[in-house]
Amino acid sequence: MWATLRATLDDTHCWTVNNVQWIFWVSIRAPVAISNLINFSFFLNVVRVLILKLRSSISAESMKYRKLGKSTLVLVPLFGVHYFVLWGLSTSTNTYVELVWLFLDQVFASFQVGPQIKRLSQINYTLNPMFLCLIGASITMR
Where does the record place the G-protein coupled receptors family 2 profile domain (predicted)? Predict the structure, then answer.
């Protein structure tokens, strides 16, 4: 849709400059905003279910809140909640605001990547010959 609109209505400067702003907003920003809103509603529903499950458990109150906090931090980048919360920053043309948005985006994305790196570091790679080849170690067959 964007390519068709761009080719017919704003075919200038090898498409590096947006002279007709509504094309960008209708074909790119609006669908992204709608999908972010839908993902945010899914996120709220999942957090609601987590709260209901944690209320029904028998563990201590402080442990319940800790579990809820950890679960929520993992779900924020998974559902793209930070895109919904930081929507106004991503549409700014100010350089400093864009840098703040990029920094916050990377901070939220790290919540999802961190547990994956921890899990990968616990795997025993020394027994895997393919891993040894990847890191450049020599393999001798006996």
Answer: 1-112
What does 76-116 look like in DSSP terms, one character per residue? HHHHTHHHHHTHHHHT---HHHHHHHHHHHHHHHHHHHHHH
CA distance 72 to 68: 6
Tokens of 10: 């704003």
Contacts of 12 (CB under 8 A, 6+ apart): 19
Question: What is the domain partition of the chain in residue ranges?
Answer: 2-134
pLDDT tens, residue by residue, 61-98: 777 788 888 888 778 777 878 788 787 777 777 888 88
